[in-house]
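Dear support,

I submitted the protein below through the web form. The confirmation email said the job was done, but the results page showed an empty box. After a refresh the structure appeared. I'm attaching both so you can tell me whether what I see now is the final result or a partial one.
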Amino acid sequence: MTSPQNPLRTDRWLRAVGYGLLAEVATIVTIIAVVLFYRFVFARGHSDADYIVFAQKAGALLGVIGGTIYVYLFARALMRRLAARFIGHGVVVAIAAIAFSVAGSIAGHQGVPRAYLLASALKLAAGALAGWLASGRTHVTA
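What the results page shows now:
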């Protein structure tokens, strides 16, 4: 007795959401690492107020730049597992990263800074770019 085989699934929507979460986690870890290195390696002996100012500036800058880069990198990693809908999957990675970022900001800061608009637009562009660049290839790896 043989069983019918399921066709190869080419959509990885849930994985795209997971990669978006990973992009946000990577961004947060990067910000924390930079702030800790600044405080304990590069600029020891400053006041707590100085460290707070640095952390705020680093978080704002790295949140936008790092978030964009990580969305692109994680979306590109996802593309190896796809056979179709590359741009859509890249955009889902970006939307998931944006959702986690906004939710974290609301939970931690009781609001969403204006810089998140730029960061969100850049993340969407990064996810779409990753998908567009991958749209010319056709192989899938599980």
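Response: this is the final, complete result; the empty box was a page-load delay. The first helix runs from residue 13 to 42.
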